[in-house]
Amino acid sequence: MTQPINQPIRFYHRNAIQEVSGASTTRTVLQYLREDARCTGTKEGCAEGDCGACTVVIGEPDGAGGVAFKAVNACVQFLPTLDGRALFTVEDLRQPDGTLHPVQQALVDCHGSQCGFCTPGFAMSMFALYEKHGHATTGCAGACEKTTPSRQEISNALTGNLCRCTGYRPIIDAAERMFDQAPLAPVNVQALARTLDTLRRDDTFHYEHAGRRFDAPRTVEALAKIKAGKPDVRILAGSTDIGLWVTKQLRDLGDIVYVGQIESFKHVETTDEWIEIGAGVTVERAYAELVKTYPELEETRERFASLPIRNAGTLGGNVANGSPIGDSMPGLIALNARVVLQSVDGTREMALEDLYIAYQKKDMAENEFVAAIRVPTRRAERANLRFRAYKLSKRFDSDISAVYAAFAFIADGDAIREPRLAYGGMAATPKRATHAEAVLADAHWHEATAQAAMLALGQDYAPLTDMRASSDYRLDTAKSLLYRFWLETRPHDPLDKSKLDVRAIELVEAK
């Protein structure tokens, strides 16, 4: 087999095409900026994508002749993933004549900075929002009419940035004020799109350093071939978890194959039966599509990590990782989602819950990878679906769940058909509550039924105690969330409360 030629990493930064060789395959974008490019405005706070001090903006072709701008965390993104993209940092905001960008001027006018350490990250999140509501979404090269986002949209855009000084109000005020400044288009989108087109590779990008390989195939077939030839190769998508293996655990990842350049992985297709989401679709885009059919997932969409993490992380990566506290799996399992696996031998499909065997162990052949996730639509036979998803964490924004619960059933009058209860944070894998489901199956949806199912949860789970919650707290809140589901979906025929406890016990014993 012919050894592929080692190619330099090529990307657009500081108004020029940069070519980088000799850097580690897992060197982070933050390390490159501060130590090599000497762009020290970008800060390191947590090195795990939590605080937002390292926020930068990535520009990549949007498929329609323009450029999509996304705020991401530089501390967990590996430098070779920049190949073919544009990188913007706080140093790019001020104009050559010294004029401040509207983002910067608004922060000054609204006193949005005190110690200043977090300010560059906030500025870049605001810059991405500024571009989203201006010329970047329309493709024009000059200043365009801008639409002002709501205060809630501004807050959502800043979920990945933490500040210990200002209390956030002045920063949110500045994000509103920046649209009142004199219009400014620092990025010539059409010219940038043409530049990025010159960086586009038609075949697999291959980069090597110190005996470690980084391959970025452009087709699923090329990925399957790489995976078949080296089954232990590390598959990299959004780097929002794997990045921490390097920055926090100092792990050697070995050879890496990056799936972020495979266009067919970025498809979302909705038919009468399925919403099919490619493995490379970002969490932000995936949930934007899912909430069109399942608006009950809107809060999950807003609270899934932070916007920079959702901009980088993929739904396929979250599913393939299979963390017991991953926020996507319980909701998808409750909706009876399926996962499509692929290899050189073809594709196969299974129920999502069947993918997880034990902690960090999945029912996958060594040459297989996740290709897509398929979520049933709300077709006629599912028109009476009752569905809710709840996240319990210490912070509302940008926090890992202590317990995540998702519940669904088909309402046949006041009877329960096909109940599906799934939890995260309660076991070594995302797991259905089969005992509680047995209590609910074909029963009437009354408070006694809900209480019986709550009692049965004790047979389904024996959760661990860790830094996020105790075992007792997890089990108690798991029951409480199920009761909340009852309160939100109950029919309007309450039972005699004096009979509830007796009937609950009888139902448990009968099942």
From TrEMBL:
Keyword hit for Oxidoreductase: yes
Protein name: FAD-binding molybdopterin dehydrogenase
Origin: domain of life: Bacteria
Coiled-coil intervals, chain numbering: none
A Pfam cross-reference name: CO_deh_flav_C
Ranges of residues in domain FAD-binding PCMH-type: 206-380
Record keywords, A-Z: FAD, Flavoprotein, Iron, Metal-binding, Oxidoreductase
GO MF annotations in UniProt: 2 iron, 2 sulfur cluster binding; FAD binding; iron ion binding; xanthine dehydrogenase activity
InterPro entries from the UniProt entry: 2Fe-2S-bd, 2Fe-2S-bd_dom_sf, 2Fe-2S_ferredoxin-like_sf, 2Fe-2S_ferredoxin-type, 2Fe2S_fd_BS, Ald_Oxase/xanthine_DH-like, Beta-grasp_dom_sf, CO_DH_flav_C
